[in-house]
Please model this.
Amino acid sequence: MTHHEEHLGLDRVRQLWHLLEPLHAVLYYAPEAFEEAVAVGYGTEERWPSYFPYRAAPLGEVGAERVASAFYSFSPRMVAEHIDPAWKIASPEAMLQARTRGIDRAYRAIFGDRTDSPELAEAASLARRAAEAADTAGRPLAAANAALDWPQAPHLQLWHAATLLREHRGDGHIAALMVAGLDPVESLVSFAAIGAASVARFESRGWTPAEWASARERLTDRGLVDADGTATEAGRDLRRTVEAHTDQLAAAPWRSLTADEVDRLVELLGEFWVAVLSCGLLPSETTLGIGKA
Model:
């Protein structure tokens, strides 16, 4: 193990995800992004009609089965409900343009004058180098985003880098879930079982009560969950292993930066992370279990 690998502990990899994830996810909650979705024809009475095409657009005009495969934990029915009509409303290319306009406006609203600051540009430059170093083999969402052209403006580069890195991490997370023998609904039941978020929050992924109960039963049979749905020690151990594998699989891009550059990026991202969390758009509880896992 090199000194740098020691320096880049998995806690550091996780911290970088925690800092960048809100910068990516604000797209799915910002009023400006909803306005851009409406402008190309999507409904926004809830967030899902725009969430699915916004996130899936880099994959191109693919059907629900392909999107469900890449998104993993969503019920295929829920994916189909939103993706089947999606590309008839607006093409993936139109959605890529809409999300760029949406995040441009959202960042300007949230960061104000700091949008064009040298600090944001420096953070974008460092995050971009890590994102460009990400290996996309076996990672469909990371590969789809990596195939897109880099935007010119630093704040848009920061969003694109955050997006590429979080999808790279997410693709690896799915691999970790599969190695752990957790199917899409079991992955949610097992995560709810450790208290990562409420069952109600996870139920937003479109599984029926019968599917949820059946998955809980399978996990109970494996000794991972008690009858009341709480994780056993073995269940907690398995989730810790999944998270450790996810961090390991997410680490490589960050090794393209020196230890000092990683430190500097963490320092620079702080104010923008605080600004996004302070704007009140993101839900206080997410299915990512940030801060709980």
